[in-house]
Specification:
Layout lengths: L13 H5 L15 H4 E5 L4 E3 L6 E5 L5 E5 L2 E12 L8 E8 L10 E7 L8 E7 L10 E3 L10 E7 L3 E6 L2 E7 L14 E8 L19 E15 L6 E4 L14 H14 E4 L18 H7 L32
Antiparallel strand pairs: 1-4, 2-3, 3-14, 4-13, 5-10, 5-14, 6-7, 6-13, 7-8, 8-9, 9-16, 10-11, 11-12, 14-15
């Protein structure tokens, strides 16, 4: 029986996990220790668990990057971490906090991404979000933004809400992007169980001005710090393909389910001030916008002032995993 039938078997408590007050704060959710929810992915000593057991340091040096992965697969839920990014010269450095099932489904994987793109000295980190479904890497749905703070100065919370009808990205409880499932998207909306990953790696070939500015290991090691780890959803047994446990414990009322009126005002303000690229307006990549796009002429005009974005043209972007490349087409070319 395939994963497409998982909806029939998701535990009864799934509704309790996700069907709660939209206005609640996610900050009341239980924080788990690293050993409770995660395993090392790669990086040897470049992954360090702090003494409290709830904080993790990932570093990148000339030898390797590093990363960790959730012990369980999840079918929908709320996933969050406080992250502090490396400072100073960070061009070519990529820090990622994302969900994926690429190891289980290499040809038709799903993915929900936060990617943090480093920069040259004096230029700010940029943040990129993306959604893939059913291997839809040729229709990547990238958006890119600046932030209203320096993410290397202190910890900030980055969160993903994933339900069967929507995906919402949050920064410090402010929703910055909402992806609603539409009938026309079909399998492009992530639907199969995924693991949660966090990585730091060398994206010199594409991450800063299309590869013009590369990682300079004179400034290594590059250190990304993670804390306040939240895994709140229905875990899925990868063999039986059934939901083996749902997080129905305390604080489930703190999981958001949508964007409130006040949050929408904040989201609209963020997007007007800080969004620098949206796939919906990429005429080089798409002759006509993907079906779910709603074109706003004012937004299109505002985005035109930013430097143009160059896309793949046959080049493959190096994947987040240390052992595998994946085929996202978007490349960040403006700094």
């Amino acid at each position: 029986m395939g994963f497409s039938h998982l909806g029939l078997f998701v535990c009864a408590y799934h509704v309790l996990v996700l069907g709660v007050l939209a206005s609640a704060s996610s900050r009341n959710l239980p924080i788990i220790s690293f050993d409770e929810g995660y395993n090392k992915l790669f990086g040897d000593d470049n992954l360090m668990i702090l003494r409290d057991g709830k904080s993790v340091h990932l570093s990148l040096d000339e030898r390797t990057g590093s990363g960790f992965v959730s012990q369980d697969l999840y079918h929908h839920g709320f996933f969050s971490a406080s992250i502090k990014l490396p400072a100073d010269y960070t061009a070519g450095v990529v820090v990622a906090f994302y969900m994926s099932n690429g190891d289980m489904f290499p040809k038709n994987h799903d993915e929900i991404d936060f990617e943090f793109l480093g920069n040259i000295r004096g230029k700010e980190w940029r943040i990129q979000t993306n959604v893939y479904g059913n291997g839809s890497t040729s229709t990547g749905r990238e958006e890119r933004y600046n932030l209203w703070f320096d993410p290397s100065d202190d910890f900030h919370q980055y969160s993903i809400l994933w339900t069967d009808s929507q995906i919402i990205f949050y920064v410090d409880d402010v929703p910055i992007r909402e992806v609603k499932r539409t009938e026309s998207m079909g399998g492009d909306f992530p639907s199969k169980p995924m693991s949660l990953y966090a990585t730091i790696w060398d994206g010199s070939d594409w991450a800063t001005n299309g590869g013009k500015y590369r990682v300079n290991y004179k400034y290594a090691p590059y250190l990304a710090e993670f804390s306040d780890l939240v895994l709140h959803g229905c875990a899925v047994d990868p063999i039986e393909q059934l939901s083996k446990k749902c997080d129905k414990t305390q604080s489930s009322e703190s999981v958001p389910t949508g964007v409130t009126r006040l949050q929408r005002i904040k989201m609209d303000s963020f997007r007007k001030k800080h969004m620098t690229y949206s796939y919906c307006y990429d005429r080089i990549r798409y002759k006509s916008p993907p079906s779910e796009c709603v074109i706003n002429p004012q937004e299109a005009e505002r985005l035109r002032v930013f430097d143009p974005v160059t896309f793949g043209k046959g080049r493959r972007r190096h994947g987040k995993h240390h052992h595998r490349s994946r085929g996202s087409q978007a490349e960040a070319t403006s700094i």
